[in-house]
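Weekly sync, protein design subgroup
Attendees: M.S., D.O., the rotation student, P.L. (late)

Item 1: inverse folding check
M.S. brought a backbone from last month's batch and wanted to see whether the design step gives back something sensible before we order anything. D.O. pointed out we never logged the input encoding, so this time it goes straight into the notes. Structure tokens as presented (179 positions):
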């Protein structure tokens, strides 16, 4: 598969994730949103946090299903919606458990979470034949698409966080000089 075939085939995943992000760009729970984890905790930390809501989860699956139907491939749309949701939930879980607050970025994980879950899921159900070249192209596309999209959204004030994790070189040097 070439880049354009992969972009078309995987549209249910990246379009659904993007549209849900644009509906609520700041990632703040809407008044009617109920967190998907029902505020449950593991080791004193939320499972997913307030940003992963029941409504957002349903919307990911609905949008992916609609895109799949527009491509005359309803099964693929539904599958990619579920796999996209699963990937974003795994990354949210990992971030909460290692102490990264909601709305903050974990470089690479946030850019490829749903790409990896879709690759694994679609391979598992033997829906499409993915070779290593296709996997690398899809993952690279999603990485750059997410990174650039989040950065542009940050610059335009749509999102409140940059995809580039913030760190202070000055702080690191000042800590080292005290040793």
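Designed sequence read out in the meeting:
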């Amino acid at each position: 598969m070439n880049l354009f075939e992969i972009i078309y085939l995987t549209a249910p995943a990246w379009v659904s994730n993007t549209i849900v992000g644009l509906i609520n760009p700041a990632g703040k729970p809407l008044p009617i949103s109920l967190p998907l984890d029902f505020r449950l905790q593991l080791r004193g930390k939320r499972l997913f946090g307030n940003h992963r809501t029941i409504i957002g989860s349903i919307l990911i699956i609905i949008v992916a299903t609609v895109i799949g139907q527009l491509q005359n491939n309803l099964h693929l749309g539904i599958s990619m919606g579920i796999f996209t949701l699963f990937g974003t939930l795994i990354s949210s879980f990992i971030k909460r458990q290692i102490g990264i607050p909601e709305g903050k970025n974990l470089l690479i994980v946030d850019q490829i979470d749903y790409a990896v879950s879709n690759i694994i899921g679609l391979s598992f159900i033997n829906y499409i034949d993915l070779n290593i070249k296709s996997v690398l192209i899809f993952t690279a596309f999603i990485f750059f698409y997410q990174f650039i999209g989040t950065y542009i959204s940050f610059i335009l004030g749509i999102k409140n966080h940059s995809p580039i994790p913030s760190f202070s070189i000055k702080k690191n040097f000042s800590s080292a000089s005290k040793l």
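Discussion: Helices lie at 3-9, 11-23, 54-70, 74-97, 109-124, 132-155, 169-177. Confidence is low (pLDDT under 50) at residues 167-179.
Action: P.L. to compare against the previous round before Friday.
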